[in-house]
Structures are given as C-alpha cells and as structure tokens.
Amino acid sequence: MSSHTQWYKLAESVNEIEFNNNGLAEVEVNGKNITLALHNGKVFACPQKCPHAGGTLAAGYIDATGNIVCPVHRYKFNLINGYNTSGEGYHLKTYKVDVREDGLFITLL
Questions:
Q1: Residue 50: which domain range?
Q2: 54 lies in a domain?
Q3: In this prediction, what percent of the chain has a pLDDT beyond 90?
C-alpha cells in the first residue's frame, strides 16, 4: 500500500461551501458523493448516505453535542470518529478535512 495520501481541493475557503441551514452540504469528490458538516467552526466529512437505511445525511441535522443525525430514523453519528451514538451499532466512515492557506482539502482514505 502506498504511503502517499491523495488530497482533493474542495474550495478556496470554507466560505465558498454552500452549507444549508442545518450546517450540512453535499459535494462530489473524485466520483464520490460526500456530506460536509460545519460545526463550531470546523468542517467534517462523511459519505452522503447513512450506513443503516441509506438516508441522505445532508437532509438531516447536527445535534447540540455535534453528532450528525440521519433524517430517516434519527440515528446519530459522531462527526469525528463516525461512531453511532444512539446505540444501534452502525459505523459511519469519516474523512479527514484540512483547512490550509490555499484552500479546503479532503482525503478519501
């Protein structure tokens, strides 16, 4: 396995991303649909679909403790590590996002 990490540029700055009123946005990166979440000034990334029933996560919301909540069954996932916090045992993949002087980047590893 290569140790080279591929980074993809999402935008020139966080302000260019069109987050909805719930602090969520959908973007396409290298053929993958990704949900971005803006919480407490930080950007988090995960797949577009909930691992349980395939609900579109950007149609959900971020709760007061910083979990992304799926709109279908209200399953909650930690934005940092993807752990299911409402007890159903599912895991949401998370992607690393990096804010740099020259833009907002993501890796899909």
A1: 7-107
A2: yes
A3: 94
Instruction: Encode burial over 61-98: b for 16+ CB neighbours within 10 A, e otherwise.
Output: bbeeebbbbbebeebbbbbeebebbeeeebebebbebe
In three-state secondary structure terms, 26 is strand
Total domains in the chain come to 1
Residue 2 has pLDDT above 60, yes or no: no
Contact 76, 84 (CB under 8 A): yes
pLDDT at 109: 86
5: helix, strand or coil: coil
First to last CA, the chain: 12
Give 15-49 pLDDT, tens digit per residue: 999 999 999 999 999 999 999 999 999 999 999 99
Q: Are 72 and 55 in contact (CB under 8 A)?
A: yes
